[in-house]
């Protein structure tokens, strides 16, 4: 976005909310002032307004995201026709494979997780709803980037990519080669590029009426995988993507 057309108060509010959204505990006003560069008078005026709107809550000597913002965020899910189809399809996938299923959209150079259904056994993931990851390092992101042309990917990503783990692909040229394979196979595969011990399998679903690119994935601990099981999960993910594509 061209910042010359931004409303300053909204940008400052967004800066505050971004900081609170990534914090594990309430953030003190002094920390918010330091991180945002806002004057204390402007900051306290915004914090007071956001608190009265219930977008944030005052806890102890700090602030955190409030229930009002949660309610607004859930409006996205109510307007997204994919949610019901995802829950049904993910439930069937879990009944068969007992592994977690996730739905994400592409937002610039990141994926944002918008839905998740958990299996009946625990798995350690970094895909909480609303969280985001660099698209180049996860199977969901690769499935989504494969839906773009190479030129569009080059416009979005630098030649050197962020390493999330030692297994992350960090060369754009190498990523482009992967995307070419994904366009042919219809399946993206990532092993321990986001989290140690976790493999992920993803397939592109399509574009929503709102213009968001969507993909679906299953994440599996590598210790639970053998060649046969991996093949079955890959088939299941591609089939689920096909079901959801029909819902679009």
From TrEMBL:
GO molecular function, one term: DNA binding
All copies of domain HTH iclR-type, residue ranges: 7-67
Single GO biological process annotation from the record: negative regulation of DNA-templated transcription
Keyword set, alphabetical order: DNA-binding, Transcription, Transcription regulation
Domain IclR-ED: 68-248
Domain of life: Bacteria
One Pfam family recorded for the sequence: HTH_IclR
Keyword flag Transport: no
InterPro entries assigned: GAF-like_dom_sf, HTH_MetabolicPath_Reg, Tscrpt_reg_IclR_C, Tscrpt_reg_IclR_N, WH-like_DNA-bd_sf, WH_DNA-bd_sf
Protein's name in the database: Transcriptional regulator, IclR family
Organism of derivation: Candidatus Burkholderia verschuerenii
